[in-house]
């Protein structure tokens, strides 16, 4: 069996099918076996697992996943890649289901149900143009997920795992950390892909929390406060939240909640922890 993590094999497949990369689908195929091994090891895939792979490409990671996992479901938008996967690079795997669809349109909770209902392990070298909608979609739609181990743009990985008071900390950090525990598994240079992307990459694993890390009465309000806090980073939090159309509380009401929490009225949103955003939203709903 020819493995695609050998760059010569990848080039042979691309030539055999006259494949042309589509930039608008974020197609940068992995050609480094060490990085591939690192991703599979970080994801901790075993024969008990059902893995969802988003964007299998020509099947580089799919091959390794089919060998490590019980079952693999791979969702690929580009129909020209489907015959390559089905008839060539992954034809020998009977534990693989390929879905030719835009992953954002697939009912992944139903896919999980159809494959036994056990929480999925998501493993992917993601198309970078839709990293955030894919990850937030998985969490917000409550697809049963055990963990998400993905290659993403390096800056995005850093933002996901950043803590308060750092330059990378923002709405994405809080959203990801509300649902999961991030772990940065590896930095990946540009020469590990064909074609070379013009950004650096990183592998990050997000392990779903079993219990929510904070108790929130109104999630929508908490996320509206978070967006307001980082929408206008230079302003004090009370001012930016008071001005936000999404936050249905006046500056005065915000001030009262701050006082009860013992928060400095001039605090900036970027200094607040997830616990404080949760506490503040609970204090506002209790008013
Ligand atoms: N997994 C392969 C690898 O590591 O070599 C390919 C990774 S490439 C960065 C991203 C893949 O996602 C491409 O195959 C692309 O066609 C696919 N893709 C892009 N947008 C997609 C979408 N909305 N739904 C499903 N797949 C998508």
What does the model show?
This protein is an alpha/beta fold and 287 residues long. The chain folds into two domains: 7-208, Rossmann fold; 219-285, Helicase, Ruva Protein, domain 3 (Orthogonal Bundle), CATH 1.10.8. The protein contains twelve helices and nine strands. The longest helix is centred in the last third of the chain and has 13 residues, at 219-231. It is elongated and about 65 Å long. It binds S-adenosylmethionine.
Biggest β-sheet description: 7 strands, mixed
Q: CA-to-CA gap between the ends?
A: 65 Å
Low-confidence residue ranges = none
> What is the chain-wise order of helices and strands?
HEHEHEHEHEHEHHEEEHHHH
Topology:
Layout: H1 7-17, E1 29-30, H2 33-43, E2 50-54, H3 60-68, E3 71-76, H4 82-89, E4 96-100, H5 108-114, E5 120-125, H6 131-140, E6 145-153, H7 154-161, H8 171-179, E7 180-188, E8 193-194, E9 201-208, H9 219-231, H10 237-243, H11 251-261, H12 274-285
Parallel strand pairs: 2-3, 2-5, 3-4, 5-6
Antiparallel strand pairs: 1-8, 6-9, 7-9
The chain binds S-adenosylmethionine.
Task: Give keywords.
287 residues, Rossmann fold, Helicase, Ruva Protein, domain 3, 2 domains, 18% strand, binds S-adenosylmethionine
Care to give the gist of this entry?
With 287 residues, the chain is α/β, with parallel strands linked by helices. It contains 12 helices and 9 strands.
């Amino acid at each position: 069996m020819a493995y695609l993590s050998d760059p010569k094999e990848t080039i042979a497949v691309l030539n055999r099918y006259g494949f042309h990369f589509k930039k608008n689908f974020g197609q940068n195929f992995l050609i480094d076996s060490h990085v591939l091994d690192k991703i599979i090891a970080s994801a901790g895939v075993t024969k008990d697992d059902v893995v969802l792979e988003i964007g299998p490409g020509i099947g580089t990671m799919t091959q390794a996943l089919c060998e490590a996992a019980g079952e693999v479901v791979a969702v690929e938008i580009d129909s020209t890649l489907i015959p390559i996967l089905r008839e060539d690079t992954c034809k020998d795997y009977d534990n693989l289901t390929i879905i030719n669809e835009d992953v954002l349109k697939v009912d992944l909770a139903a896919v999980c149900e159809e494959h036994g209902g056990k929480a999925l392990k998501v493993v992917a070298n993601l198309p970078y143009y839709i990293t955030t909608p894919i990850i937030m979609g998985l969490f917000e739609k409550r697809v049963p997920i055990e963990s998400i181990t993905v290659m993403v743009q390096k800056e995005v990985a850093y933002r996901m795992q950043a803590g308060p008071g750092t330059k990378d900390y923002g709405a994405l950090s809080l959203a990801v950390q509300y649902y999961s525990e991030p772990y940065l598994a590896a930095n990946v240079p540009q020469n590990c892909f064909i074609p070379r992307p013009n950004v650096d990459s990183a592998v990050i694993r997000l392990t779903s929390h079993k219990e929510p890390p904070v108790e929130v009465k109104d999630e929508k309000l908490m996320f509206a406060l978070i967006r307001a806090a980082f929408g206008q980073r230079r302003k004090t939090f009370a001012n930016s939240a008071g001005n936000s159309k999404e936050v249905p509380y006046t500056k005065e009401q915000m001030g009262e909640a701050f006082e009860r929490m013992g928060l400095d009225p001039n605090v900036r949103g970027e200094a607040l922890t997830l616990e404080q955003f949760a506490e503040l939203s609970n204090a506002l709903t209790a008013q």
